[in-house]
Amino acid sequence: MSSQYPLCVDLDGTLIHTDLLFESFIRLIKQHFFSLFLIPFWLLKGKSYLKHEIARRIKLDYELLPYNDEVISFLKKEKSLGRKIVLVTASDQLFADRVAAYLGIFDEVYGSNANFNLKGRNKAKKLVELYGEEKFSYIGNDKSDIHIWQYADSAIVVGDKQFLTGMIDKSVKVLTDTGINNPKSRSFTKGIIKEIRPHQWVKNILIFIPLMLAHAYFDQQRIFSSLIAFISFCLCASSVYMFNDLMDLDADRIHPTKRNRPFASGELPIVVGLFIAPLLLLASILLSMAVSLEYTAVFSVYFILTTAYSLGLKSFALLDVFILAGLYTIRVLAGTVAANVDLSFWLLAFSLFFFFSLALLKRFSELFNLVKMEQAHSHGRGYSTDDISILSALGVSSGFISVLVIALYIQTPEHVVQYQQPELLWMVFPAMLYWISRMWLLAHRGEMNEDPVLFAVKDKQSYMIVIMAIAGIALAV
Q1: Which residue, among 54, 68, 25, has the nearest Cα to 275 in the 3D structure?
Q2: pLDDT tens figures, 232-282
Q3: Which burial class, exposed, middle or buried, applies to 156 when counting CB atoms under 10 A from its CB (0-12, 13-18, 19+)?
Q4: CA distance 115 to 269
Q5: CA–CA gap between residue 187 and residue 199 (Å, rounded)
Q6: C-alpha angle with apex 351: 347 to 354, nearest 5 degrees?
Q7: Per-residue b/e over 405-421, b at no fewer than 16 CB within 10 Å?
Q8: What's the CATH fold of domain 211-343?
Q9: What's the Cα-to-Cα distance from 410 to each of 12, 23, 252, 328, 424, rounded to whole Å?
Q10: How far is Cα 165 from Cα 155, in angstroms, rounded to an integer?
């Protein structure tokens, strides 16, 4: 590699582990939703015009982009040796200039504009015009970069090196001693599984609670309907998780653990989420319609509410925890409709107070972690660390009220007759009281992660308490 030749580097997928076209599209949804209706008209004028119109409307936090540290280190090393470093990208010039300004290592910056898409053959022609054939080196990651490498003095491949190197002309030197390895291993299957979060499906077991409390254990039709409802909720929830992570890219990237989520880290391309999330949603809707129209109506309320939460309602203090509690309770309502059993006032009251406590516990844990990190405010939420005491008070009292509802239910004469040994239902009371008290105690000690449900799934004592509660109900029946 001749050190007097300019070193040119691509942006999307090379300098960063993501694609700014899709990053900017996500921001357009959040920042200028109604501009989405203009996209077909922009596309009529070409892809470069589309990219320019989106770029001039949205704001990106360039500090938070998932940069390829190995590429940046190599560029800095070459620059220290006096080499000209050039950023040349198919992303809009506005984005290219701002990334270059943030990194501060580029001597020249070239990007697309409203009338010219600087990609593939266009980029190769531009670089030959600027520096001459075989008078520049190029770092890229995509099949479209093969056109550039054919005219380069040397090639540095970021990505599927075996596949791309095999397609590069043998006369081009492919450099392998740069210290640049493959970007974060992109196993689409692994990334998709992470994003759909099957471990979160445990929350949808709530759908079966009305079936159990109605003692319809052997009603095959009701069991089948509840099972279809459970699957539809799981698919819908996974779709929403994907959509929520796409909307929360910036917030996730500054979070100590969420920054490792596939979309935030660049492990999974954003376009995958834009394709799979709607498919999951469509499948969940079709399944919901197979249950009943009444169930589809309840299911639709859940989807609308959780989407509104993702788009902005989660930033309103207290309203967000009411919505979270409501989303859990809607699962119970959906189970009631799917199994075609009577709605229980007691189950509804318990669900509202119990899940309100869990939602507050989630927010409390988030704020507790912020206190440990010496941060005052939660990004994208309506809370400050000063709110931690009031959230704790509200959460503990709400949890204890849910346990009180259980006690009142047990003592209600019209329900006692449904059980052969109703006194054994009291096994549920201390089990739930202990569990709620323990969860809040652990949260105050800082031993709770930010999702109490996931904590409970991995907690042995929680399993013992669940077994004790189920045993009490089973023996009473």
Answers
A1: 25
A2: 999 999 999 999 899 889 888 988 888 899 999 998 999 999 999 999 999
A3: buried
A4: 26
A5: 19
A6: 135
A7: bbeebbeeeebeeebee
A8: Tetracycline Repressor; domain 2 (1.10.357)
A9: 61, 53, 44, 23, 10
A10: 9
**For the domain bounded by 7-174, which CATH number is listed?**
3.40.50.1000
Query: Is pLDDT at 1 greater than 60 in this prediction?
Result: no
For residue 255 the two structure tokens come to: 């979070």
pTM above 0.90, yes or no: no
Name the helix (H) or strand (E) containing 109: strand 108-112
Domain extents in the chain: 7-174, 211-343, 344-477
Q: How far apart are CA 375 and CA 383, in angstroms?
A: 11
Dihedral of CA 456/462/463/467: which sign?
A: negative
Return d(Cα 158, Cα 10) in angstroms, integer.
10
- Of 167, 138, 107, nearest to 10 by C-alpha is 138
Which residue's structure tokens are 């979160």? 200
Distance CA(88)–CA(108), nearest Å, equals 8
Handedness of CA 286, 293, 231, 454 (dihedral sign): positive
Helices 293-311 and 319-339, axial angle in degrees (round to 10) = 160
- Distance, in Å, from the CA atom of 303 to the CA atom of 457, rounded to the nearest integer, reads 24
Tokens matching residue 337? 């409709």
| % of residues, the chain, pLDDT over 70 | 94
